[in-house]
Design goal:
six-stranded mixed sheet, alpha+beta, ten-stranded mixed sheet, single chain, about 375 residues, globular, binds zinc ion
């Protein structure tokens, strides 16, 4: 009888231990799973237009920049046996670049370049949800290996932004690294690598812009071996400056304010020599001005192009102006009440393209619309203050 009575007691104790253990595992799992509310998603609005090129004039100049090149310094992932920092800097110097950032994985590689821009690429997860840190102070070593939830992506972006000047979503559309849904609800980054040798993310960029995320463009080679012609001078960023000696802070400011644009070089030159690529870049017309005057957006180049295309909310094509016979160097679009943003893509006769940053509606004169702040859910805020 005594034996029969003691059994349920031991049973009970065991049951409580199991429940306590399960609760503990649950708490640990929740702790590992950052929970963020979706960031507000609404088109840009306000009575003013923010024009990132309002200060562009013939006084300044455009710098050629690539912030996405991998060296053999980190060894593991690069396929160039040589491909040293020196090799990379010398190739880009021959191509007439003013700024070359070495974006090794999870490692800020020091270089003797002037200006020296500390850069690295973050991410070692299976779906290539990668980020670029331009002006990085230090490396964030955490990542989520398996396909990431939006909350986890937000968590990584927040951690990276604490450690860098300019945070870029690298090749965002590649392998679904970031989905259209992500683009509506993620926040807190500065730039969007629309142009990358492996992937063009133009459509996804329109999703981010249409949901009121002021993501500014960058283009990058993602070069893994500068001894392969196809890795070089395919996609780049041109940055506006009025200074004779360019300081890193000027570059960060220009990228974030949008005084920069992306260039996609024609595929026909992918296998061309460094000399030919350089000649092509030197001959490519530049943005001379982009102005808003009496509600007209007027874009002017230093040379001729075949087509100017104006794109707006939800990626809708608003206007196309083309003349492929004699070419045109300027085009205008009348901004309407309904436009939340308008961006311009310019096509040249050889199929090279220029992608301008958008003009966006804003509530305060000359102030770029800001990214909404990310907000933790209550459950996550208990664990991570
Ligand atoms: Zn990458």
């Amino acid at each position: 009888m005594r034996y029969l009575c003691r059994m349920p007691k031991r049973h009970n104790r065991k049951k409580w231990w199991i429940i306590a253990g399960a609760l503990w595992v649950l708490i640990l799992l929740i702790r590992m799973m950052p929970l963020y509310k979706p960031a507000p998603s609404a088109p840009f609005s306000g009575p003013y237009w923010y024009n990132p090129y309002r200060e562009v004039s013939t006084e300044g100049r455009w710098l050629r920049a690539n912030f996405h090149a991998h060296s053999n310094a980190w060894g593991l992932f690069t396929n160039g046996r040589k491909n040293t920092v020196k090799d990379i800097l010398s190739k880009y110097d021959s191509l007439g670049y003013d700024i070359t950032g070495i974006s090794d994985y999870q490692h800020i590689t020091q270089t003797p370049a002037t200006p020296y821009i500390p850069v690295y690429e973050h991410g070692y997860n299976i779906l290539k949800t990668h980020q670029g840190s331009i002006g990085a102070h230090d490396v964030y070593h955490g990542d989520y290996i398996l396909p990431q939830t939006r909350s986890q992506k937000q968590h990584i972006l927040n951690k990276l932004k604490e450690r860098t000047q300019v945070l870029v979503l690298h090749h965002p559309d590649w392998m679904g690294g970031y989905s259209p849904r992500d683009m509506r609800f993620l926040t807190g980054y500065d730039c969007f690598e629309v142009l990358n040798d492996f992937w063009n993310s133009e459509d996804l960029w329109d999703v981010a812009l249409s949901s009121g995320k002021p993501a500014m463009i960058v283009g990058g080679d993602d070069a893994h071996n500068v001894f392969k012609q196809t890795d070089l001078a395919r996609d780049l960023t041109l940055i506006y400056t009025v200074s004779d000696t360019v300081k890193p802070d000027d570059i960060y400011r220009a990228l974030i304010s949008g005084a920069a644009y992306g260039v996609e070089v024609t595929r026909m030159l992918s296998r061309a020599s460094v000399v030919e690529k350089r000649r092509n870049l030197d001959s490519l017309p530049l943005l001379q001005s982009c102005k808003i005057s009496n509600d007209s957006l007027i874009v002017t180049l230093t040379g001729k192009a075949g087509e100017f295309r104006f794109t707006g909310q939800d990626g809708k094509i608003l206007k196309q102006v083309s003349d492929t016979v004699t070419g045109i160097h300027t085009a205008a679009y009348l901004l309407s009440q309904d436009d939340a943003y308008v961006r311009v893509k310019i096509a040249f006769s050889d199929s090279s393209h220029i992608y301008l940053n958008p003009v966006m509606r804003t509530v305060e004169k000359d102030m770029k619309p800001s990214m909404p702040a990310s907000q933790k859910r209550w459950l996550f805020s208990i664990f991570d203050k």
